[in-house]
Write a structure and sequence with these properties.
It comes from Rhizobium sullae. Keywords: DNA-binding, Transcription, Transcription regulation. InterPro entries: Homeodomain-like_sf (IPR009057), HTH_RpiR (IPR000281), RpiR-like (IPR047640), RpiR-like_SIS (IPR035472), SIS_dom (IPR001347), SIS_dom_sf (IPR046348), WH-like_DNA-bd_sf (IPR036388). This protein is of the alpha/beta class and about 290 residues long. It folds into 2 domains: about 5-95, Winged helix-like DNA-binding domain superfamily/Winged helix DNA-binding domain (Arc Repressor Mutant, subunit A, Orthogonal Bundle), CATH 1.10.10; about 105-280, Rossmann fold (3-Layer(aba) Sandwich). It has helices at about 5-15, 20-30, 35-40, 40-50, 50-60, 65-80, 85-95, 100-120, 120-135, 145-155, 175-180, 195-210, 245-280, and strands at about 140, 165, 185-190, 215, 230-235. The chain has a 5-stranded parallel beta sheet with strand order 2-1-3-4-5. Helix 2 crosses helix 5 (about 50-60) and helix 8 (about 100-120) crosses helix 13. The chain is elongated and about 75 Å long.
């Protein structure tokens, strides 16, 4: 598979020798990489003032079998999160088939969730459960959009164990919370590229204090994995301008369900007790 950097270098290398028409198309690819991934060849041709077949000829001139092969590294670049959100938004609004974006987003989300089971093996899930089961307390952390899966994991786990807490929830005093992080606890860190700066602080403190880390991330190359004892992965692919966190939520939901199953009747009894307390306190609206 050709990387975006390789494709970019190839275009730059061939640029001086291209015809005027091909050079115009090539320059457009270099200057508007997000649009290449998100809009049709016909729209690209209109925007760059060349014919659609020009892009086909350019792909073959650069050594690609067809336009789809040349476009692929641009699509992979966008999926990886290496492009700014604003640029993705700009490209998104230029789409001609705007009515399809809703269905495309839902389908991408479904594919991401399905991929969770193939990306993470049974051994990976078991290792994650064992790490959390051995801990006398679990600190869960996720910032910005990853706050949602982090909060979800805490809420679900607290239905059957009281020692799971959300880091960074005390008025932003993250450093103060980390001061009490103790050996024997565990940290669950959730993130995707670009990774929130605060995650590095959390995993660094955990490493220095000998606290095991479960990283739930979008890539094995994530900075969090360097300090992680166990890694679970999720995909953030989306045709939208922002990475999807749906698979991250699905991952933590499945992890919590697996943990409860492993806890046996004691865990089920705790859920029953917690539910009764919530009901008594009027947490739910009456039917």
């Amino acid at each position: 598979m050709t990387s975006f950097a390789t494709a970019q270098d190839k275009i730059l290398e061939e640029l001086p020798s291209l015809s005027t028409e091909l050079r115009k198309a090539a320059r457009f690819l270099l200057d508007h990489p997000d649009e290449v991934a998100l809009v049709s060849m016909r729209v690209l041709a209109s925007r760059s003032e060349v014919t659609p077949t020009t892009f086909v000829r350019l792909a073959r001139r650069l050594g690609f079998g067809d336009w789809a092969q040349l476009r692929e590294p641009f699509e992979n670049r966008l999926r990886s999160g290496s492009s700014p959100y604003a640029a993705k938004a700009d490209a998104l609004v230029l789409r001609s088939a705007r009515e399809t974006i809703f269905a495309e987003s839902v389908n991408a989300t479904a594919a991401n969730i399905t991929a969770v089971t193939t990306t993470n093996s049974t051994n990976d899930v078991e290792a994650a459960c064992v790490l959390l089961e051995k801990a006398k307390g679990v600190r869960v952390v996720g910032f910005r959009s990853c706050r949602a899966p982090a909060h979800c994991l805490v809420y679900l786990c607290r239905m059957f164990r009281n020692d799971v807490t959300l880091l960074g929830s005390d008025g932003g005093a993250l450093e103060a919370e980390l001061a009490s992080l103790d050996r024997g606890e565990a940290v669950v860190a959730i993130g995707f590229q670009p990774y929130s700066r605060e995650l590095g602080l959390v995993t660094d403190v955990a490493r220095r204090r000998g606290v095991p880390v479960l990283a739930i991330v979008d890539s094995m190359a994530a900075p969090l994995t360097r300090d992680a004892d166990v890694i679970l992965r999720f995909s953030v692919d989306s045709p939208s301008f922002f990475p999807s966190v749906a698979a991250a939520v699905a991952t933590v939901e499945a992890l919590a369900a697996t943990m409860l199953t492993r806890s046996g009747t004691k865990g089920a009894a705790k859920v029953r007790q917690t539910e009764a307390v919530l009901t008594a306190l009027g947490a739910y609206m009456p039917d």
